[in-house]
């Protein structure tokens, strides 16, 4: 699949993982039947090269590069649905926001694809929740990599689930404008390149907590724009992109390298935003971070 070329590999080439736990309010017989039907659908999609069941592919950092990998996000007219595409236009991920429930759910399948039978609105791959004041956002993986095959009562599903990213928003004045800031915490990487699995059953606390310098997490911070008197606005330099003015535009850098842009998100059309990022961010981390600007005005 060409859309995975910055990543480690293709889900359809590595096999599939079928969920075995029964959805709530279903009998075991109904659940078994649904799982068997889904397994057949997945097998059929594998043969066609369309299966996208390996969630970890979207968790791996992009390959190292001196440049940002380019993607773009298309927003629906009601501003509650978002689709992530590669620069070539290949679909990667779908997200829908539920403001009343204070959450955004992420799916690996496109619900509007006529050939798509595997999209299930009750089975998000990732979920992002936000606080009542909309200042704190937390992304979790629905099926933890550490304990996904354990019985439910022995898994982390009752303890907060595997955390993928934590984002905190603040606001501060710059010149005559107000700057939307964010601080992002993501699980770190070991020296061999493997990821830290942020499972509470492995003794790891909340990603939103304070960390020591040598803690197994990385911190990203927003690059501050400068006030431009000529355009009477705060501006950022999005190199290589023609960006429209928007309160949702931002750039992120590692806290220890504030001039080294890791991720940038900018409006490029009425309903389209560029999303460019690189190592050590993964697809779900970058996409999720971009959607925390949902309420920025």
Automatic annotation (TrEMBL):
Gene3D superfamilies: Tubby Protein, Chain A. Residues 68-293 form the Tubby C-terminal domain. Pfam families: Tub (PF01167). SUPFAM superfamilies: Tubby C-terminal domain-like. Residues 1-33 are annotated as: Disordered. Belongs to the TUB family. This is Tubby C-terminal domain-containing protein. It comes from Zooxanthella nutricula. The lineage of its organism: Eukaryota, Sar, Alveolata, Dinophyceae, Peridiniales.
């Amino acid at each position: 699949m060409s859309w995975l070329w910055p990543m480690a590999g293709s889900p359809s080439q590595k096999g599939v993982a079928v969920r075995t736990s029964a959805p709530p309010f279903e009998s075991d017989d109904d659940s078994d039947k649904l799982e068997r039907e889904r397994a057949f659908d997945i097998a059929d999609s594998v043969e066609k090269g369309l299966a996208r069941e390996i969630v970890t592919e979207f968790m791996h950092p992009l390959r190292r590069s001196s440049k940002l990998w380019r993607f773009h996000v298309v927003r629906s007219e009601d501003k509650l649905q978002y689709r992530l595409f590669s620069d070539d236009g290949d679909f990667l991920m779908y997200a829908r926001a539920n403001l009343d429930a204070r959450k955004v759910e992420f799916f690996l399948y496109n619900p509007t694809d006529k050939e798509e039978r595997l999209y299930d609105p009750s089975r998000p791959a990732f979920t992002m929740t936000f606080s009542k004041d909309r200042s704190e956002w937390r992304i979790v993986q629905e099926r933890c990599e550490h304990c996904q095959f354990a019985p439910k009562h022995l898994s982390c599903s009752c303890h907060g689930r595997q955390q993928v990213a934590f984002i905190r928003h603040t606001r501060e004045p710059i010149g005559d404008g107000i700057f939307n800031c964010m601080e992002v915490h993501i699980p770190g990487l070991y020296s061999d390149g493997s990821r830290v699995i942020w499972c509470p059953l492995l003794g790891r606390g909340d990603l939103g907590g304070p960390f020591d310098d040598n803690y197994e997490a990385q911190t990203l911070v927003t690059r501050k724009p400068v006030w431009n008197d000529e355009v009477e606005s705060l501006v950022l330099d999005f190199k290589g992109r023609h960006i429209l003015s928007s309160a949702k535009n931002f750039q992120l850098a590692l806290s220890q390298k504030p001039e080294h842009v890791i991720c940038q998100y900018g409006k490029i059309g009425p309903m389209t935003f560029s999303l460019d990022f690189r190592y050590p961010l993964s697809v779900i981390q970058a996409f999720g971070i971009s959607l925390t600007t949902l309420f920025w005005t």
